[in-house]
Amino acid sequence: MSRRPAIALVVLLLAGTAGCAQDQDYAVPGDVCGVEVQAGLLKPLLPPGDSFHQSKTHEGGGDITGCAMDVDKRRELTFQANLVAADVDPLQVKNISLLRAGNPQKADIGSDARIADNAAMAYSACTYKGEPRRYVVELWVHKPSADINEHRKDLARFITAYLPAAQKTAGCTS
Questions:
Q1: What is the number of other CB atoms lying within 10 angstroms of the CB of residue 28?
Q2: Does the pLDDT value for residue 52 go beyond 90?
Q3: How many domains does the chain have?
Q4: pLDDT, mean of residues 99-115
Q5: DSSP string spanning 106-152?
Q6: Which of 42, 53, 104, 105 has its CA at 20 to 30 Å from residue 149's CA atom?
Q7: Which domain covers residue 147, as residue numbers?
């Protein structure tokens, strides 16, 4: 075999290997922190990899629940949900964190929301055990996306579906 065909073969093999590395070789879960979600909404937020693990970061039953998602043993996403008093503005409380997540923009989700480059936060007014409250969900992305505009759309689609499902699961009614 001459040198050119051999080089071409090596390039083709490397290209094929690189393409395989871009796949999600793990099953995308159908729940986030025990809340059922469409895997298709979560999939664009997760990177390629071989293994996936979801773990609780806060136990349920209190006012805070949370979980984290690791791909290939690297933290990729962190979720948190809180019940807060009706007079607390959770977006103001987390304003600095949202600014650090990159260019937070108002979104028409729930009672109010912000979508940043690497985070999404939304809340809805609700009633919990007879008391007016606000149910807040947060999603923090640990690795920036190459296409920020598409990533923001993915974050918005996800949190639009997740907020009411998580709120219902928590027993906070509209």
A1: 17
A2: yes
A3: 1
A4: 96
A5: EE-SSSEEEEETTEEEEEEEEEETTEEEEEEEEEEESS--S-HHHHH
A6: 53
A7: 28-170
